Amino acid sequence: xxxxxxxxxxxENLSREVAAWVAxxxxxTVPDAVVWCDGSESERRALQARLVEARELIPLNAASYPGxxxxxxxxxxxxxVEHVTFVCTREREDAGPNNxxxxxxxxxxxxxxxxxxxxxxxxxxxxxxxxxPIDSPYARCGVEITDSPYVVLNMRLMTRMGREALxxxxxxxTFVKGLHSTGELDPARRFIMHFPEExxxxxxxxxxxxxxxxxxxxxxxxxxxxxxxxxxxxxEHMLIVGIENPRGETHYLACAFPSACGKTNLAMLIPPASxxxxxxxxxxxxxxxxxxxxxxxxxxxxxEKGYFGVVPGTNPQTNRNAFETIRRDTIFTNVALTAEDExxxxxxxxxxxxxxxxxxxxxxxxxxxxxxxxxxxxxxEQNPCYSPAADAPQGVPISAIVFGGRRxxxxxxxxxxxxxxxxxxxxxxVASETTAAATGEVGVVRRDPMAxxxxxxxxxxxxxxxxxxxxxxxxxxxxxxxxxWFRQGDDGKFLWPGxxxxxxxxxxxxxxxxxxxxxxxxxxxxxxxxxxxxTHGLPIHxxxxxxxxxVDRDAWRAEFGQVGAYLDEFGERLPQALKRELxxxxxxxxx
Length: 591
Ligand code: GTP
Ligand code: SPV
Ligand code: MN
Prior knowledge:
The structure is a single chain. The protein is α/β, with parallel strands linked by helices. Among the domains are: 188 residues, Phosphoenolpyruvate Carboxykinase, domain 1 (3-Layer(aba) Sandwich), CATH 3.40.449.10; 220 residues, Phosphoenolpyruvate Carboxykinase, domain 3 (Alpha-Beta Complex). It is 30% helix and 21% strand. The chain is built from 17 helices and 29 strands. Strands 1, 4, 5, 6, 7, 8, 9, 10 and 11 form a 9-stranded mixed sheet that branches. Strands 12, 13, 14, 15, 16, 17, 23, 24 and 27 form a 9-stranded mixed sheet that branches. A hairpin with a 5-residue loop joins strand 20 and strand 21. Helix 3 packs antiparallel against helix 6 and helix 12 crosses helix 17. The N terminus is likely disordered. Bound molecules: guanosine-5'-triphosphate, sulfopyruvate (SPV) and manganese (II) ion (MN). Sulfopyruvate binds next to helix 8 and helix 9.
């Protein structure tokens, strides 16, 4: 390693707690070397060079994709693994029916058996990181110990990683402990364990994003949601986007859509040509930490510093901002490769693949060239519409919270909740078709409350109760909405053009918050009337719009019946207020 020994000693001396834990882990895992990461550019270069030399990273075309690399993961390690992800609380009920559970002592024993001696012949990296602006009172720190240099490089892009984080840990004395090893990538020896009561995580056997970059879903959602409940805030699977109107006023929206359902795309949206003078600013694309502010509003910070985004479908038409963001200094994981050493993926609309994501000569009979869950890792600062407010210690005030899902039928393009508690019911009832972001069948509709099914670190019943209380304590709570970009016609085509055109829906949402847009009252909430949505310059048929905004009472009665059955799984712990709200919703559709 290029890191000078004095520097290592200095980092090690910063925090006695971290050093003691590292020593303990080193005794268990028996690495050949221990390296403390400082986050410097020289450290990044050395790690990158080492991975290139080992042929784990493939440099891409230096003229068209400068500083970019391709990483091919093990073919059995390409997505989150929810069936082996556990929340290990002392009481099973605290994890809830929404989580797999294991008793902490048993989980520790199981994991320590896997970790014993697992770093022989490998280097143990100590990765201190800060989730959120380094000087934010809402930011929280952690340390990930990993034996994967690929994970280190990703954590450096995704978090504020290195010396400053360790200095903050030394000042505060607390940090989330995340222990990770890629092990042998044996799916039968792969577990992601969370111990919220101990603020710790143990992850073994995967190198994939959500399983291995422990600052992300493991810390910033599962552990943080647990802490947030105790401390009166919310940790959510939400993008944060600022919409600036031609008068220079900016409204911030926080939107929760399940994995691979459009967060990154909405956060980086480019408005249609008719929206001259409007600007979109990305604060975050995946996670929001929401805190009640002293002015009675809800404020959001993005705990991350980079994007770990879905590659397929990205092109200059769907998302020019994302396309431009990933033209340099980007790690591409599991995309295809062209003869010119350029990355290639389905939906790119240029070039052609020579090798598929597994490095085999591309053969369409063997499936897509890029893996459907292929990802880019890139610094947020490369985004042309990166919001300077992403670094604001106090965060940004939220005007609207938007839930959404991928549903080919039923859910209309957009509707607004009648109240905060009604909004919580809408969030709790979110359902969405599964995607390639997690292993398992794709396209199956499942309940994914607040897009947090895979990420809530505790019992959903307690989570909804917490949501209701947070809203009740706000003097000026955000308005709550639901959107669906994925309605399909009988021909299986999307009814709504989506992407940049989603701006029209966001505009209605913002105008509703300001009381400036019209709506019709329906049994499920407020919907735009036929002329309330701006369709200027949009080639959409009146009948298609009507279909997008239709509310089928019978179908909704059936839906609320299913929501009720789902909520009943949470038994006595389910908040009364939510039950009452469901009763009201059913009554309105004649149930
Ligand atoms: P995670 O990173 O898994 O949390 O995903 P995400 O919610 O950020 O989803 P992302 O924006 O990466 O989009 C996932 C897929 O949905 C991509 O293939 C996009 O091209 C597609 N997509 C995004 N927005 C739209 C839209 O408005 N309409 C349609 N039809 N597809 C969309
Ligand atoms: C998701 O699956 O929601 C992602 C990718 O954002 S991961 O980091 O793997 O969770
Ligand atoms: Mn996500």
